[in-house]
Amino acid sequence: MDNAIQKTPERESFYRKIDGENLSALWNVMGDLITPEPKSACRPHLWKFDDIRAYMMEAGKLITAKEAERRVLVLENPGLRGQSKVTTSLYAGVQMVMPGEVAPAHRHSQSALRFVLEGEGAHTAVDGERTMMAPGDFVITPSMKWHDHGNQASEPMFWLDGLDIPMVQFFDASFAEGLEEDEQKVTRPVGDSFARYGRNLLPVDLKRTAKASPIFNYPYSYTREALEAAKAHDEWDACHGLKLRFSNPVTGDFAMPTIGTFIQLLPNGFKTARYRSTDATVFAPIEGRGRSRIGDQTFEWGPRDLFVVPSWQWVTHESDEDAVLFSFSDRPVQQKLDLFREDRGNA
Ligand code: GTQ
């Protein structure tokens, strides 16, 4: 597949001639287009939360959440600099909302997830409902739903943002608008969507076409309980420890149509077998410490650090304490397009 085509003066002059007509010869580029295995510019990388936190506090003195619209430091993959991408298909950033601040209401085609890293008592409002956020909570903002964030507590609030920005960009399908007011009208009580949809009950004649989950906050207290209950009984998976996926209670599919989200527990001293998959993945440990080997590099992580595993690179994780890792990838999209592939080594 990789054999370079010979150059001759006749061929070169032919290429120049057709170039002027917006044509090119496939045989010169085929090997770069159709590769025998994924070839990605995306590189493994780890960001220390303490470093990001310090820069965010500095940013807090330079600009308000209101002026910035969203005060976020973008996690730029070192192999994809200047593109606001953490992987080829996904965006990630760390957002800070200071006490008394509001990140004003807007809506857009891009779907967003939040994974709360630090702080307590700030809220995000989605579609007329506010949810209070605590560390480890996983919150979604579906496509084209109005959303604003506010902090009425006394400490700054930090969370990881994951969005499908590069995917929407790829399809040239971006729409966005702001609201006149900073905050949307609250029309439903706190906890309404979880009370309606988070209890293994659904309206008998529910006809819902939206693809995102109607639950928009998956609280960490419930997530942690599920992991702890399973820990006592379940067999550990050699590659994943104990790994769960967040699901949409209406469809059983992933919680969001474009981004798959996962939570996994690695018990103290567990070392996973090697694993690789075509979905480049962003990891956010929230409890515990350990290290991950990605390709030929080792990354030491602790709570709130963030790291990225590119497509098809071998990864192993090892924990020094019971560790809990949140992660997200484009797996739902790849699976729907029959593109997803994984390799468990010999495990
Ligand atoms: O909170 O709505 O990190 O619109 C990037 C774009 C966060 C948000 C980001 C956004 C948001």
How would you describe this structure to a colleague?
The chain is α+β, with helices and mostly antiparallel strands. It has one domain (45-343): Jelly Rolls. The protein is built from 8 helices and 22 strands. It has helices at 9-19, 30-33, 49-62, 65-68, 165-170, 192-197, 220-233, 331-336, and strands spanning 45-47, 72-74, 91-97, 102-108, 112-118, 122-126, 129-133, 138-141, 147-151, 157-163, 176-178, 217-218, 242-245, 260-266, 276-277, 281-287, 290-294, 297-301, 306-309, 315-319, 323-329, 342-343. The strands form 5 sheets. It has a 6-stranded antiparallel sheet with strand order 1-19-16-21-14-13. A hairpin with a 2-residue loop joins strand 6 (122-126) and strand 7 (129-133). The chain starts with 8 loop residues before the first helix and ends with a strand. The mean pLDDT is 97. The protein binds 2,5-dihydroxybenzoic acid (GTQ). Residues 70, 72, 93, 95, 108, 112, 147, 161, 163 line the site of 2,5-dihydroxybenzoic acid.
| Category by helix and strand content | alpha+beta
The chain-level mean pLDDT equals: 97
Q: Which class in CATH terms?
A: Mainly Beta
Number of discrete domains? 1
Ligand roster:
2,5-dihydroxybenzoic acid
Q: H/E series, N to C?
A: HHEHHEEEEEEEEEHEHEHEEEEEEEEEHE
Major beta sheet summary: 6 strands, antiparallel
Strand portion = 25-35%
The CATH architecture can be named as Sandwich
User: What is the helix tally?
Assistant: 8
Distance between the termini: 31 Å
The rounded Rg comes to: 22 Å
Q: What's the name of the CATH homologous superfamily? A: Jelly Rolls
Here the CATH topology equals: Jelly Rolls
Strand order of the largest sheet: 1-19-16-21-14-13
